Amino acid sequence: MPATVDIRRAADRGLTTTPWLESRHSFSFGDHYEPDNTHFGLLLVNNDDIVAPRTGFDTHPHRDMEIVTWVLEGELAHQDSTGNRGVIYPGLAQRMSAGSGILHSEKNGSPTRPVHFVQMWVIPDETGITPGYQQDEIGNQLDNVGLVTVASGIPGRDAALSLHNRAAALHVARLSAGDSISLPPAPYLHVFAARGRLTLEEGGELTEGDAARCTDADGRRLTAHQPAEVLVWEMHAKLGG
């Protein structure tokens, strides 16, 4: 199968707005449903959220999902029914395994400052596992040019966080203008430009909120033209086989 690159523009994403939330969806989510855009590879959710000060998501349930949250600006307070608490900020990686069922809330406690974050979901290899939580500070690692592996379930792969999916890994890079990195070879790559402007080799330009869905990717180069942050899902399987 030939390699492909499908560029999805920021303006074409689904949008949910409330008095306290602006949420942009890369895939079908909630009331926003596109039958031909429910996932890519193993990635089901890539929500780009801005939550207003002193507001947030009240306690709500999840089940059988690996949920990774990456904060771009501000702080997000997490609390769940297994007793875990944490305040997530830029450079602090977080993963929640919903497993057999968990309740949690996500709040912006700042009186003045919005919180901007990306939340991503993949399905675990096994259903009904014990719910779990992990967080780890990796901000210092992002000072070096290159991809930092935030979360992975791929055997033998070092990562800050573990995933209960043996075919998926999430990487992040913070780049200065002129920096260039090689993307990992994989059957499926989801490249999300969280901020800045970049060029994907044989794919074209990506600006903030754009994504590239790549199949059979083999070490393509990604080059920043201004300070940028990029989230890359490396996936060696897809839903349904």
Structure characterization notes:
This protein is mainly β and 241 residues long. It has no helices and 22 strands. The strands form four sheets. It has a seven-stranded mixed sheet, with no helix packed on it. A seven-stranded antiparallel sheet has the order 2-3-4-11-6-9-12, with no helix packed on it. The two termini are 16 Å apart.
Topology:
Blueprint lengths: L3 E5 L5 E4 L3 E5 L17 E9 L3 E8 L3 E8 L2 E5 L4 E4 L3 E6 L4 E7 L6 E8 L9 E6 L10 E5 L8 E2 L5 E8 L4 E3 L3 E10 L1 E4 L3 E4 L3 E7 L3 E4 L3 E8 L6
Parallel strand pairs: 13-14
Antiparallel strand pairs: 1-20, 2-3, 3-4, 4-11, 5-10, 6-9, 6-11, 7-8, 7-10, 9-12, 13-15, 15-22, 16-21, 17-20, 17-22, 18-19, 18-21
Family: Belongs to the pirin family.
Pfam families: Pirin (PF02678), Pirin_C_2 (PF17954)
Protein name: Quercetin 2,3-dioxygenase
Keywords:
22 strands, 7-stranded mixed β-sheet, mainly beta, Pirin, RmlC_Cupin_sf, Quercetin 2,3-dioxygenase, 241 residues, 7-stranded antiparallel β-sheet, Quercetinase_C
Quick summary:
The protein is mainly beta and 241 residues long. Strands 1-20-17-22-15-13-14 form a 7-stranded mixed beta sheet, with no helix packed on it. Helix content is 0%, strand content 54%.
